Amino acid sequence: MTIQEAAQRSGLSAHTLRYYERIGLIHSVGRNLSGHRDYAEEDLRWLDFLTKLRTTGMPIADMCRYAELRRMGEHTSPERLAMLELHRERVQARIAELSKDIKVLDLKIDVYKGRV
Amino acid sequence: MTIQEAAQRSGLSAHTLRYYERIGLIHSVGRNLSGHRDYAEEDLRWLDFLTKLRTTGMPIADMCRYAELRRMGEHTSPERLAMLELHRERVQARIAELSKDIKVLDLKIDVYKGRV
DNA sequence: ATTTGACTTCGAGTGCACTCAAAGGGTGAA
DNA sequence: TTCACCCTTTGAGTGCACTCGAAGTCAAAT
To answer: Which of A37, A104, B1, B36 could form an SS bridge with B5, CB 3.0 to 4.6 Å?
Structure first.
């Protein structure tokens, strides 16, 4: 699969895919005879997971650490699990914060509506 | 109230308070005889509201627009209301997205746990 | 009187996460 | 074969939201 197809399917730009590879987030994407990137289905699954981490607010640096651990093999599972659990807590906290703050917005909106 | 006290109470840094004033987010903070900023209680309430907008992800540019409308007077209420309602929808959507994504994290965590 | 330290303005610097440009190579259609 | 258009790498540029530095002012303490 070409970089354009991978971009289409992952929702990331070709620029971003190259950038992710450069910083070590994606490792060893295959190359075809012309030296062009040739993405496999597994790369797409990994990209989808990376995207979940990003959209939930994990910093790139942490994602790099996670990717590095993954490359190091099975024995790093506990550390990866710990990272995910910590991240999960942060996402949960973020949801709680947004849920609290949206109430303030609702109140303010009610004030504006009451004024009309 | 000095800038340091306002910083303490608002949770923003003095640097950020000056920055907010410079870009028009806060208007006409009083000055004392020495020309130092002298924050009023009302400034604090406005800062708290601004902070809610920021932590819920409203871009600074939009906040500036809101602040500008507010300065323009009562007749801009409908537009301000519209901005808040749009923002509210975005926050709601963000909560929904995070709630969906956290399930993926939970699944992944379960996989890791099942492996141990 | 001098030192300390907080304040002022304004412009410049920082960190993050991309995003693009330049220079060059490969491939397929007209 | 020439054109268009994709790809490659590397380094530089962008946008956002701060964050800091420099130069100078001012007031209270020693």
So the answer is: B1
